[in-house]
Amino acid sequence: MLILGIESSCDETSAAVVRDGREILSNAVATQIAEHRLYGGVVPEIASRRHIENIIPVTRQALDDAGVGMDDIGAVAVTYAPGLIGALLAGVSFAKGLCYAAGKELIPVHHLRGHVASLYLTHPGLEPPFIALAVSGGHTHMIKVSGYTSFEVLGRAVDDAAGEAFDKVARTLGLPYPGGPEISKLAAEGDPSFYRLPDPHTSGEFDVSFSGLKTACLNIVNTAAMKGEEVRRADLAAAFEQKVTDILSRRLIAAAEEYGLPACVCGGVSVNGELQRKCSAAAERKGIPFYAPAPKLCGDNGAMIASAGYYEYAAGSRAGLDLNAYATLEI
Ligand code: KG4
Ligand code: ZN
Asked: Does the pLDDT of residue 36 top 90, yes or no?
């Protein structure tokens, strides 16, 4: 069965055609990053407008690239939560109109379920159960994936999400948005041991906290400015990346060990090389299988929504034309 997946929760407008939840026939993405970069972050009003402009051409491209028409599509899956409300509404409204016009069924997809499904597109043999650490700009969730549509959140970021922390520290260092890849690039030239960053405390076993680290970085930059000293930007970027990836990889492997399940990462931050290396090395030491999405499937894309949509459809999930979008929603 072919599913057309539509994603518009943040700053990428994307549409994709996926067969049986696993095989990508097309995955068209229109990114708005260059425009939001001018403002140092995503401007919600601009994001909504660009989604409205891009959604029809991107969907056409996804169908063309797959060499199919709407007649070949079994159902349409759309991200309806969580995310920027105006951005989500652009995708949801379009998907509803398309389903009405083409006589197709509509499947509502939770954005994080989509990130989890990016793993199915990359690893054909991977099936639940497993532990997935979903790390993105808006979320840091340790998820026990018991089935394709069965999820339990074991822990989460109690303050800033991992991607958000990368973006904020990058801004402090004068780096452009999005900060994750910029910090990572700069960190490659730095010495992670020059600056000492604190070890954040959390009460939940699989919770994480990044705001203290972010504040510590800000203090280092401000103190240096007051003393008229240069900040060693590459060293600070390296110390920060080191700390965040240490925390995330340790928590993931601890959860996988406790539940006796494979360990996975997904979401925009999961493309981070240091994070993948640490998880992979720690998993290998413990004899735990480790999986990450293909790099182009880590960030937001329609294919992961189509994949998740396939499994939601199989489980009987359908939305009516009264489907709404939600800025926040539990997985
Ligand atoms: O999943 P995603 O594309 O969008 C959301 O659902 O939020 O994730 C975007 C986040 C941004 O915060 C970005 O800075 C971060 O992923 N990111 C990275 C890297 N590439 C993107 N974080 C760390 N290292 C990277 N290489
Ligand atoms: Zn995302």
From this structure: yes
